[in-house]
Automatic annotation (TrEMBL):
Pfam families given in the database record: Peptidase_M28 (PF04389)
Main location: endoplasmic reticulum
Protein's name according to its UniProt entry: Carboxypeptidase Q
The species this protein was found in: Vombatus ursinus (Common wombat)
Domain of life: Eukaryota
Amino acid sequence: MTPLIFLFVGMLHLLPLCSGRAVCKDVCHLKTFEQIKEEIAGYQDVAKAIVDLAVCGKAQNRSYERLALLVDTVGPRLTGSPNLEKAIQIMYQNLMDDGLKNVHLEPVKVPHWERGQESAVMLEPRNHSMAILGLGSSVGTPPEGITAEVLVVSSFDELHRRASEARGKIVVYNQPYKGYGESVQYRVQGAVEAAKVGAVASLIKSVASFSIYSPHTGIQYYQDGVPQIPTACITVEDAEMMARMASRGTKIVIQLKMEAKNYPDTESFNTVAEITGSKYPEQVVLVSGHLDSWDVGQGALDDGSGAFVSWEALSLIKDLGLRPKRTLRLVLWTAEEQGGIGSLQYYQQHKVNISNFSLVMESDLGNFMPTGLAFTGSDKARAIMKEVMNLLQPINTTQVFGDGEGVDINYWIQAGVPGASLLDDLKRYFSFHHSQGDTMTALDPMQMNYSAAVWAVVSYVIADLDEMLPR
Ligand SMILES: *[C@@H]1O[C@H](CO)[C@@H](O)[C@H](O)[C@H]1NC(C)=O
Ligand SMILES: *[C@@H]1O[C@H](CO)[C@@H](O)[C@H](O)[C@H]1NC(C)=O
Ligand SMILES: *[C@@H]1O[C@H](CO)[C@@H](O)[C@H](O)[C@H]1NC(C)=O
Ligand SMILES: *[C@@H]1O[C@H](CO)[C@@H](O)[C@H](O)[C@H]1NC(C)=O
Ligand SMILES: *[C@@H]1O[C@H](CO)[C@@H](O)[C@H](O)[C@H]1NC(C)=O
Ligand SMILES: *[C@@H]1O[C@H](CO)[C@@H](O)[C@H](O)[C@H]1NC(C)=O
Ligand SMILES: [Zn+2]
């Protein structure tokens, strides 16, 4: 596209919508809400057919069984690992075998970090070997480890107040769990804040809604100009115990050993497959989940189930012989856990077509019994989504909540494309998230099949409506 045409297409957005046929090719909305409502009501039989196939028909346990085969075969899929690349190749073949169109891989440069061996042993006031998991991108310790006294804090405020006590210590964060979004700040920037006040390492209470002595890993980021100190998560139980010890004035000493190491970037891929639109093939409804995971457990919940429920949505639609007017595009992201690396690149490479993206969807919050859809978009678009979700009355999953954002669709949402996330019981999700417990055993095929039904109905109907979702 020449810069001149580019400018012209850009200017179209500045014109009032629907001012005349000439500019109404792809972004205009000529129907009234009442007409759209009526149009959506016409999908009741299709929605019922999708639900029947997903929940009762021959598809039944399919997404669960497909996922079990992949994760039992490959195991966890850390970015930069051979496991992830093996999973990507298997998925490529799976999507080809499923008869989907335009199956291809889009290369992405991704970080490569490995944890190696790691341990944390309390030496004072008593010997206690602690369960830990180094945080993604953390540096390691010297081979002999770091042995230091502990400073326990319950917030960044407390750390700053007690900054003078932190020098040379291992900072232990015992922050309360106030939901993932808020508490995850301690995991993401705990090491940097501790290093700024002279700490030699930091240990962070796992960001988890429930614990049976399980450390929960995740990404953390260093900051330019701040010393890089080793950092790991510890269990809720150990964090709380050390807080009790400290409050009694007891001196705590820990020896931390970590072999964690960052390697040069490596190559990975976003995996793409489509059902090509019958009338507006250039227009897209994007359905997605991420294929990478942490290196513990099986990455079954996070995000194997989201990726496979997204694939299942296309499979169900195809099995019913349906072909929406717009293209349904499945993207299985790589390197989400490292900070949405695959999805950022995808956005940069495809945003030239942003005016033709109707809806971006991501399932990365679990696939237990769905409670509804989290949605971000204009009031007009929300009203349409509510009508679409009404089609799911047969499985009583009709609610539309706020905050449809997700790591892998945020770039599109911030640029104005409506976005949706599949919502379920987050307390249950964050009990297993990023831990050794993230296995098939935590999933339930009887619930995953509902997720697939919701995902397929929403993606199909939005992709098949006469008009794109309004922005
Ligand atoms: C679905 O999977 C569950 C768990 O593996 C199993 O108990 C059940 O029999 C399966 N149902 C069908 C219809 O295959
Ligand atoms: C604690 O462990 C250290 C090294 O692992 C050992 O030398 C020491 O004897 C132990 N102390 C007690 C009280 O068990
Ligand atoms: C943009 O969309 C057109 C079809 O409208 C397609 O041919 C082209 O490959 C797309 N470009 C990118 C970068 O996705
Ligand atoms: C969007 O799709 C329409 C047809 O549906 C096409 O005419 C237009 O060129 C596309 N725009 C871009 C930016 O690809
Ligand atoms: C349907 O879902 C709503 C909201 O989640 C719930 O309050 C209600 O009890 C459900 N009804 C049935 C029949 O399950
Ligand atoms: C799908 O889920 C529903 C609801 O949990 C359950 O009744 C049904 O048996 C499940 N289907 C299969 C094949 O497991
Ligand atoms: Zn995830």
